[in-house]
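A student in our group prepared the protein record below, which I am reviewing. What it holds is a sequence and that sequence's fold in token form. My question to you is simply how this chain folds and whether the tokens agree. Do not assume that whoever made the record got everything right. I have pasted the whole thing underneath without changing anything:
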Amino acid sequence: MFAVVLKEEEEVRQVARIKTFVIALPDDDNAAGVMNRITTRVTHRLNYPSGRPWLVMSLPIHAPFLISSDQTAVVIGPVGMDQKALDRCVNSVHSPVDFARMQRDHAGSFSVFATCRGALYASGPALETRRVFRADIDGVPILSDRADVLADLGGFAMDHTTVALRLSRGVPHPFDGVSMWQGISPIPGGEYVVVDEDNHVETRTWWSRPEPVLNRADGARLLREAIAEAVAVRVPASGPLACDLSGGLDSTPLCYFAAQASNELVAGTFFTEDPGGREDLEWAERALPAMPSIREHVVFSTAGIPGFYEDLYDLGIPLDEPTQAGGTIPRVRHMLNDDAKRDISVHINGLGGDHLFRGVRAWNHTLAKSRPALAWSRARAEDIPSRVPAITTARQLADRRSYRRWLRDTIEDAARGIAPPQLPRSNDWSVPLSMPSWLSVDGREAVLEHMRSAVDQTDPLAGDLARHFDLFTVKQAGRLARSMGLIGDALGVSYDAPLLDDRVVETAFAVRYEERDTPVEWKPLIKEAMKGLLPEAYLRRTNKIGGATQAVRGYAANFDILRALWQDSGLLDAGFIDSHRLFSESAPSKLNTPPSHIHALTDTAIFMQSQQSSDSLEFSPHEELK
């Protein structure tokens, strides 16, 4: 294992290149042979009665996990159970499917790997803050929490069509969550997988979202309890705890509950010297009187940390998919390195609040079926400032296209180069697909053919537009939080997003749309939940500033490095990018933020480069897969 306290930059780089992983194997000679290929760092190995391994783990020293006393079940991640509770759960199991009760009944964000009667079980959180993947290697199904680990084990090739698709904006379900390698399949959040004694694989659903039936007051009370519990399960048994205190309505409630649960809390706030850049700090200071137990309030100027688009070349963080977190890695690394020097092992962030507490136009579409007058007034309140004609609002609310029809239409619009609006409309099942103009002809055709061929087999995540939109966006946030967690794992600090725990999300989803948010109030549900806990003057906050100015400056200052990243990642060698057009259209502007597709390009390049630079699993010689 490696030390938590990291002080030298070179030491940070070496630690960051280590992949943490979990691999679960069936009780089979061929599976044992797969295990024998691994010659890299392994921290835990559990065996079947046969002596063959069923679970192999390489975990960072800070990672929370429990192993049942009989060594038949492992829970990885923050969870609201202790050793005795885990043993009671295991003793009540009669078949592998009974392990799903752990996911349903306990707070936290965790994966479960277990074995029962010769069968193998695995599941992760419903909202995909942790994931499970499977692949057939040497004729047997192998499970892991990382796709790149399975790719290393099986020698699987990168799926270049999927890579090309990730360069687009608004990649829809189910294409947004697939593995980047051929032959590797993700287990969808909310499902578990069982591999039986004969190596047959079965997946079943263990989770479904609740119906939105609660009023705001009841929902706020339950939300307050769920957030408090989600924070409490992350408090280390000893030592300090860190939490973002941005001054916003996402991290500040978390910081409040962290201060209640720990007397060693270190709160951190960033500010900038740009106009309005100290606003977050001012709001954070308004909230501080409600948290007198905070041990230390650390204030960071963004002038002393990596700027936007800075230090993105050769980050060395092992990732197994492109992530919107890519551009933030240098800043997160700076912050987590500071945590590690303070002996902090857990850092809480507010990711997910915008997805849960801010309304979307899709809600109005579903509301129109049962409460048309309310849906109309909400939709016009959102559309009038954007100068959307009333007839357009009416048509959108009346649109009854199925998900497959909408998906087919958005694919064809993208094929014709029709640019969608920046924000989804009331009748959009998610952000419409937008392909970059610099995608090559071959790349464009490969992506379109791939998507068109899958439409007729694609179902939405839920039966109506609003429920689908909710699940789609929160699962995307969950995968973003997972990537943030991988960054923390590589640097020796658990970097967690409690607002995306299943129990917290369920509580928010259970509140009626019209009670959860309105077009005329900023995040009313979380305000209601924190009423009486945070100062009234703080709860009057109505907005939050963005970082557009910093993005414009950073893009211009680091454009040459970004070009080198795009080129050296291998993306420009794959044949699906028109390099000349890319460079001519991506030049920095003194006034405008970078083109939206640049973010996807950079995130994908960071992923591709991470596959080149991070330590792969080392193998003993073996026969190539056919």
Summary: The two ends are 35 Å apart (CA to CA). Confidence is low (pLDDT under 50) at residues 1-16, 615-626.
